[in-house]
Specification:
heterodimer; A: alpha+beta; Beta Polymerase, domain 2; Cytochrome-c3 Hydrogenase, chain B; 3-stranded antiparallel beta sheet; globular; B: Alpha-Beta Plaits; 11 strands
């Protein structure tokens, strides 16, 4: 069903549907999104994101936006609730939709709009020792220097029982990874309950976007999550291009596709190696990290940066490739493919590795659906979603995508999804390269008209990345909302570790490999 | 088991020679931008192109000043697009011991015709060639000893962590130099700190530093670790590692490549003796 069919008989659920570019916007009659949400979710839609915007200076109100998507419609539906400035609040849906838990609390912290009826309305994005500020309000200057924070009073939920004790871990972890706090409640070896405390790397990115001209903001988008620099960059540029009605030339769209797949490959192969290492198969990891290095070196040759920075720009890409570069890239992919196959064979031939990975860290499909899990973690648990196929962008409309989906939801299947996706990336790169016709690699983007709203969506290697913008005057942004797939998927970790032993936590964590910086922004 | 051994034998040796041998670097790698201060085409255009304010220009009728801060540079190459007199080089070994050594100041005054500015004074914080010598000397020393590093992510985007992790892969194989990453600051000689230091990580960074036995060496990694980078100093960030703990070596980059990191770590190792670490 298309959104038009679902919304044919609204019965007062919303008014004034407007088409803004390829997406549908509707206005909610009040601050309660539940009636519309019930209708949409009953018809196979899901909520991809919820976020707020300060329009007090212009319209004397706040808005809260709900982004919906569904299988059979390539557009997004964005519902908007108007929030008054007097005691601002909106109706929470976090009790029914755990995926919204942190996103709703973010709105509370950043905008001072209360999430009415939230089951756990405590601070999340600003820690408990912050003063009472709402940094994303327009009247809060970005360079405010807050006084030193006193005391640390975050209270974790107590876990009680005979022989039950708690293991606090982080924010500084033992490995070379990002900071976050995990609190395990254990009885003997098995984990009973995991509590997360995140946002240690919150660095004001969404506010910072409002300060930079668009041409500089692209580099900020590349720094949202360093291992997804290109995906976030493309999502941002797509939003800009849609706001400016700019058409990206074909060659640029194909080049973007190739680089997006290279990003997927270097991250997936590293994760496959890391999963093997976390169960003791060190040699497999040495080979996998050698393969990752192969792609990173190729990235450097194609873009000047090992992590694909400084390449994407609104209107296309910043530099073209010579025929030699392209054939070199194909040569590297060829070598990569045969090496990758032999390493997968090595891992698959190890019964002890398989034994440790199968039935470890299970996320059941029904749980994954209830929690709104997406990306690699979702596909290993029966969630058949992929932005590349469902909302095609770049050159993905020219390739057929066979999305790997498994039902078992364990670490082994999350690794298998990555293996399948790398093989598919190779197919995509070859198909797209063969059509890499001569055409401009970049077109100038006209000056951005103010007050245009647009959404950019990309399937990063972790899953769905969304950038929603409202343009401001003189090629600036008045709002940029970033949704990294990680913020949807942390609840999956909490679910998957339960009943597993503490020593298996690292491999379960690695099998999701979520971005802390993308979550915290 | 035989499959594993066969694969290892087939693969052979992949480790690079650096620092003993010069590294192989792609000619397309975007390293340090090189400025021709005598014939700087268009400093205002270069400054406007820079997303982090690494190039700043101030001028009056009678004088002009251009300040280039490599500690803010994210190596995007936009300045060279705006001003062809700026050349992107493949230089990666930019690590310094002094923050001011990353800053170049060029002063200009009008020439005799009065219509053009000419270069009057050029000041580098520290001579890069001296630095190279220091590194080379220390490289020889370091091969004889071991170093334990603890990495602290103080709010980075994870870009620097990717490249620090690369140091452990078979190509860079940092353990061949006696350098290894350890799980606790209590086991560490050196802290490698990344990120603009978020307010939420400020205390954790300080505690980690306090837990590292003295003498300790602190290395600030990447544009963010040095200066806050593209995030700058805002309500949620402190704007650089040295605003929280004393820093001994700065490694520019966004993110610094494994070679740049290796260069910086080896530079810092030369400092261990100064701080009283017995050899």
């Amino acid at each position: 069903m298309t959104f038009e069919q679902i919304l044919a008989n609204p019965g007062g659920l919303f008014h004034s549907p407007t088409l803004n570019g390829p997406d549908i916007y509707v206005e909610l009659p009040g601050t309660d999104p539940r009636p519309l949400t019930i209708l949409l979710t009953a018809n196979g839609c899901r909520i991809a994101s919820v976020f707020a915007e300060d329009r007090v200076a212009e319209e004397n109100r706040y808005y809260v936006y709900y982004v919906f998507d569904q299988d059979s419609d390539s557009r997004y539906l964005i519902a908007r609730a108007t929030i008054s400035t007097a005691e601002p609040s909106f109706v929470s849906m976090a009790a029914e939709m755990p995926a919204l838990n942190w996103q709703e609390r973010e709105i509370q912290d950043w905008f001072g709009i209360a999430a009415e009826g939230h089951p756990n309305p405590r601070r999340v994005a600003l820690h408990d020792n912050w003063p009472d500020v709402h940094p994303l309000r327009k009247d809060f200057p970005v360079d405010t220097v807050l006084p030193p924070f006193e005391g640390e009073q975050h209270v974790l939920r107590p876990t009680l029982g005979e022989g039950v004790f708690q293991i606090p871990v982080g924010p500084v972890h033992a490995g070379i990874i990002e900071p976050g706090h995990f609190n395990f409640a254990v009885a003997g070896e098995p984990i009973l309950y995991l509590q997360l405390r995140m946002f240690y790397t919150h660095k004001g990115i969404e506010k910072r976007f409002e300060q930079l001209p668009v041409r500089h903001a692209v580099f900020l988008a590349e720094s949202i999550s360093g291992d997804s620099a290109f995906s976030h960059g493309v999502a941002f540029c797509q939003a800009i291009e849609r706001a400016a009605d700019a058409q990206v030339p074909e060659r640029a769209r194909r080049m973007r596709t190739i680089l997006l797949e290279l990003e997927r490959m270097y991250n997936h192969v590293a994760d496959i190696g890391a999963i093997a290492m976390d169960v003791g198969f060190v040699v497999a990891n040495a080979h996998a990290s050698r393969l990752r290095e192969m792609i990173l070196a190729l990235n450097e040759d194609l873009t000047g940066s090992r992590t694909l920075r400084g390449m994407v720009c609104p209107g296309g890409v910043r530099r073209d490739w010579t025929a030699e570069q392209v054939s070199h890239a194909l040569g590297v992919v060829q070598v990569f493919e045969s090496e990758f196959n032999s390493i997968v064979e090595l891992i698959e031939s190890s019964d002890s590795t398989r034994d440790r990975l199968a039935r470890t860290g299970i996320l059941r499909p029904d749980k994954a659906r209830d929690l709104g899990i997406i990306g690699v973690g979702g596909r290993a648990s029966g969630i058949d979603r992929d932005v590349r196929r469902d909302h095609p962008y770049a050159a993905y409309d020219t390739v057929t995508l066979d999305v790997p989906v498994y039902q078992e939801g364990d670490v082994l299947r999350r690794m298998q999804v990555r293996i399948d996706e790398i093989r598919q990336s190779i197919v995509i790169i070859r198909a797209v390269e063969s059509q890499l016709a001569a055409s401009p690699f970049c077109v100038p983007v006209p000056p951005l008209p103010p007050d245009r709203c647009a959404l950019g969506a990309v399937e990063g290697w972790r899953g769905e990345i969304l950038h929603w913008i409202r343009t401001g005057p003189n090629n600036t942004l008045s709002r940029c909302k970033i949704k990294d797939p990680s913020i949807n998927n942390w609840p999956a970790m909490v679910e998957a570790v339960q009943g597993n032993i503490v020593p298996d936590f690292p491999v379960i964590n690695k099998s999701f490999n979520l971005s802390y910086s993308g979550t915290d922004r | 088991m035989f499959k594993i051994l066969r694969k290892t034998a087939q693969t052979g040796l992949v480790t690079i020679g650096y620092p003993a041998a010069p590294p192989v670097i792609s000619p397309r790698y975007r390293g340090a931008p090189k400025f021709n201060f005598e014939h700087f085409n268009d400093p205002p255009a270069a400054a406007a192109a820079c997303p982090t304010g690494a190039i700043s220009v101030t001028s009056t009728d009678t004088s002009g000043r251009v300040v280039v801060d490599y500690g803010l540079c994210i190596f995007c190459g936009q300045c060279a697009e705006a001003d062809p007199s700026i050349k992107i080089t493949q230089q990666f070994d930019l690590a310094v011991r002094d923050r001011s050594a990353l800053v170049v100041t060029a002063d200009y005054s009008p020439d005799s015709s009065g219509s053009n500015f000419e270069l009057k004074h050029l000041q580098y914080g520290e001579s890069p060639s001296d630095l190279e010598e220091t590194v080379k000397l220390r490289i020889r020393d370091v091969l004889g000893r071991s170093l334990a590093i603890r990495v602290v992510d103080a709010g980075s985007c994870n870009g620097c962590e990717i490249e620090v992790n690369s140091l452990n892969n078979p190509l860079y194989d940092i353990e061949r130099l006696g350098i290894h990453f350890v799980a606790s600051p209590r086991h560490a000689d050196m802290l490698l700190a990344t990120g603009p230091v978020t307010r939420n990580m400020e205390l954790a960074l300080l505690k980690t530093w306090s837990a590292t036995p003295d003498p300790r060496v602190v290395v600030a990694v990447g544009a963010c670790g040095i200066s806050g980078g593209i995030f700058g100093r805002n309500y949620a960030t402190v704007g650089g590692v040295d605003r929280v703990v004393p820093v001994d070596v700065y490694i520019p980059g966004c993110p610094p490549t494994p070679l740049a990191l290796l260069n910086g770590i080896l530079l810092a190792v030369g400092m261990m003796e100064e701080k009283g670490v017995p050899r």
